Amino acid sequence: MTIDPSKISASTTPFAPIDECSAITSEKEILFSMHTVFRVDDIKQAVSNSRLWEVQLSLTGDNDPQLATLTERIKRELCGSTGWHRLGDLMLKVGHFNHAEELYNELLKNSSSDSDRAAIYHQLGRLKNNQGQYKEAVSFYEKSLENKRKTLPEDHSSLAPTYNNIGEVYRNMGNYSKALEFYDKSLKIWEKSLPPNHPHLASSYNNIGEVYYNMGNYSKALEFYEKDLEITKKSLPSNHPSFATSYNNIGLAYNKLGNYSKALEFYDKSLKIREKALPPNHPDLASSYNNIGAVYRNMGNYSKALEFYEKSHKIFEKSLPPNHPNLATSYNNIGEVYRNMGNYSKALEFYDKSLKIYEKSLHPNHPDLATCYNNIGGVYYNMGNYSKALEFYEKDLEITKKALPPNRPDLATSYNNIGAVYRNMGNYSKALEFYDKSLKIYEKSLYPNHAVLATCYNNIGGVYYNMGNYSKALEFYDKSHKMYEKSLPPNRPDLATSYNNIGAVYRNMGNYSKALELYDKSLKISEKALPANHPNLASSYNNIGEVYNKLGNYSKALEFYDKSLKIREKALPPNHPDLATSYNNIGTAYYGKGDYRKALSYLEKTLAIEQSSLPPTHPTIKTTIDNIGIVKKKM
Question: How far apart are the C-alpha atoms of 344 and 576, rounded to whole Å?
């Protein structure tokens, strides 16, 4: 500790040596006053013991301009008419919810006016929202409104914060229409009572943007995020951390809209501000790296995604305790990349690390635990181990049912995943049952042309496709496609998938010219929207190859199969199942051409991958062994 005597005011006593009155004078104890403030100059790990940190402190004085600015800012941020009210607000900010609740209940007993009671109920609403007790939060906020309305007109500015907070609670509950209703009430009051560039207005636009984002209406979310940014530009300096948040949110919307270059542009703006304004191990920096990693993952650039996810993870490791949930989320994201790469053992390794932290740090019915079980189920699903996938998906569903309201989209996702397992197990009636449960929730909780609703119709179409009911499959694929066209920009990869699925139906109906037409539309979108080595492009080439194979044009089939294989060999690890599919298809084409030696070579490559990446009882392995037997007989 460094103390400069010239900074000590005559009216204060920041410290006092007490060795003369201490029981052990040789200890030379110093007693510091409670109001003494030190500046943190440096923090570094001790060389002799990695568990210890050396912190260099220097005493501040009353004339320190930064301390004065900080003190003034804290005074502005702490709300309350009395010291007790401000103490309660401070307790909320530092997370001492039980103590804050005790204090507010005592203040409530002694309150003598409607305005006092309104303020206390408002704070109790904030407290319950922070604790995740949303029904209680709404109840307290409504009591606050009731007391305010006794003395204030309906459009009084004091009502706006309570309307805003009720909107936040409904957003947390997943009741987005109700959230919008209250955010809109708040916004209308602020638009009348505040100057056009007031930060409260920016915050209000941002909140409405977040609701639209959660509803999947990303273009509408973008519209409100841009309004927020417009005000922020006028009211704050260009390197203010609020800019980073605004840029980050716009990046999130562009990412969801599939405009990855634009998403990266805004994430990069956000990152540059955070790198200047924040210390190198700040969690917000980790969040920026994480978001950039997510864009690269969506682009199929998995090495770049891992690079940014690992940057994010290193910050979390340095700045957070070992069992912090954010570390678990970081492990989860890295696992997701390995899963996309087809490296399922590595994916399970990271998902397991994530799960262990969540199990230690979270309540057993926490939604993040459900997400973790869902991800592990997803890996087993990809590996073709459907019984194991079902086990984890059911764990996810059990928690989600307990933790979330019945119409929450996360519950629909759980039903959807279980439906996908039953579909792949060939239990189509069970698959339709779960897809239907999923669809009913999505129809209640999402706006009519939401892309997720389109995906749900697509999945039901897929079941009918598997059942050979092509007219029914086309009916649902067509519903899905129309929604995608309304809700997504024209070059969104989901539209390419939609054309691809409709093409597959026509292929199986023997209408190869129609199939090629649709596959070509799918390919054109994929070529515009995705990088040259994206796995989805490989799928498009593969599908076109399959049509030519069906037409008996084996040379043309091989041309497209080879394009698909080249991408997969660059983009995927050597044991990825999609590589096995490519080798199998090339082998089948050579068999059609009568080149049995080459056919055998590719089918053996197929078998080697399947045996290393799938469980030994997987039906695909038996099919490949049978095909090898057929080729050998021809030789």
Answer: 9
Interacting residues of 60 by C-beta distance below 8 A, sequence separation 6+:
7, 37, 38, 39, 67
Last residue of a domain, one of 315, 344, 361: 361
Residues 554 and 611 in one domain: yes
**pTM for this one?**
0.70
pLDDT per position as a tens digit, 191-200: 999 999 898 9
Distance from the Cα of residue 616 to its chain's centroid: 35
Summarised one tens digit per residue, pLDDT across range 223-251 is 999 999 999 998 878 888 889 999 999 99
Flag whether 561 is in a domain: yes
Which CATH number does the domain housing residue 243 bear?
Answer: 1.25.40.10
- Which whole number is the average pLDDT over 464-478? 96
Domain that holds residue 500: 446-529
Q: Is the pLDDT score of 632 beyond 90?
A: yes
User: What per-residue string of b and e applies to 600-628 under the rule 16 or more CB within 10 Å gives b?
Assistant: bbbbebbbebbbebbeeebebbeebeebb
Q: Where are the alpha helices (DSSP H) in 425-492?
A: 428-445, 451-466, 470-487
Rounded CA-CA distance 156/421 in Å is 54
SS3 626: helix
Number of domains present in the structure of the chain: 5
The token duo for 562 is 């080879």
User: Is residue 456 situated within a structural domain?
Assistant: yes
